[in-house]
Amino acid sequence: RVVRRVLGDDGPAVQKAPAWSPDGKLLVFQAEDDEGHIDLYRVNLDGSGLKQLTNTDEAESSASWFVPSHG
């Protein structure tokens, strides 16, 4: 539901496993296309800038953000 609110009806059909970026400006999520491929996508909080991050035959697992530690 979170992804659907950000994208409206413009994104891939089945969307799940959203993860917000640490700064809250981006959302990464899994999406299934019409052929059943599950890939990862990224979108800005306002719904712009939808970008497919992976394009493989294997189902991608849910994504998460990596924040390096300093020190």
Write up what this structure looks like.
The chain has one helix and four strands. A hairpin with a 6-residue loop joins strand 3 (38-44) and strand 4 (51-52). It has one helix at 2-7; strands at 14-20, 26-32, 38-44, 51-52. The N and C termini lie far apart (38 Å). By secondary structure, the protein is mostly beta strands. A four-stranded antiparallel beta sheet has the order 1-2-3-4. The model has no long low-confidence stretch (mean pLDDT 79). Helices cover 8% and strands 32% of the residues. 15% of the residues are buried.
Write a short abstract of this structure.
This protein is mainly beta and 71 residues long. It is built from one helix and four strands; from the N terminus they run H-E-E-E-E.
Secondary structure layout:
Blueprint: H1 2-7, E1 14-20, E2 26-32, E3 38-44, E4 51-52
Antiparallel strand pairs: 1-2, 2-3, 3-4
Counted beta strands: 4
Radius of gyration: 12 Å
The number of helical runs is: 1
Instruction: Report the mean per-residue pLDDT as an integer.
Output: 79
Q: How would you write the strand order of the largest sheet?
A: 1-2-3-4
Q: What gap, in angstroms, lies between the N and C termini?
A: 38 Å
Helical/strand content category: mainly beta
Helix coverage percent: under 10%
What is the string of SSEs from the N terminus onward? Answer: HEEEE
